[in-house]
Amino acid sequence: MSPRQLFCTVAIAEAVTWTLLIAGMIGKYVLDLGGLGVTIGGSAHGLVAIAYVLTVALVGINQRWSIGLLALAAASAVLPYLSLPFEMWATKTGKLDGSWKREATAARADHTVPARIVRWLVRRPVTAAVILVVALAVIMAVLLMVGPPGK
């Protein structure tokens, strides 16, 4: 899976979970159907939003995005559906072009600690998947202990 394919897949998933959350909120607050829809939609959205931010970091570092662009991409998860126009813009402008960088080049950006970590992960996809799933689980567990937004 290329960086573009991964980013597009997770951006679409992030938008789908926004739909689940919004539908759950309509069910709870407009149709008086109770909070199950918000619980399910909110949990799904929280999980995928965290996965989106982790994907932004992984892809953005690989693609040598600036700190500002990384921040903008991550922030696009905050407003409903904004990950999609960001993904379309990034695709159109070539920000997602190319493959995974497995080796360092002479570029200064390739010699930073984050770039080294991303290359290490890219060369070990199974290990990377396990690490990212564990990171996602730890982040989600901590957030669940803190409590849902607004409480």
Automatic annotation (TrEMBL):
Pfam families assigned to the protein according to its UniProt record, in alphabetical order: DUF3817
InterPro entries: DUF3817_TM
Protein's cellular compartments: Cell membrane
Segments passing through the bilayer: 7-27, 33-58, 65-84, 126-146
Cellular component aspect of the GO annotation: plasma membrane
Lineage: Bacteria, Bacillati, Actinomycetota, Actinomycetes, Micrococcales
Membrane topology: Multi-pass membrane protein
Domain annotation DUF3817: ranges: 6-92
UniProt source species: Glaciihabitans tibetensis
Coiled coil, from the record: none
Keyword terms: Cell membrane, Membrane, Transmembrane, Transmembrane helix
UniProt name for this protein: Integral membrane protein
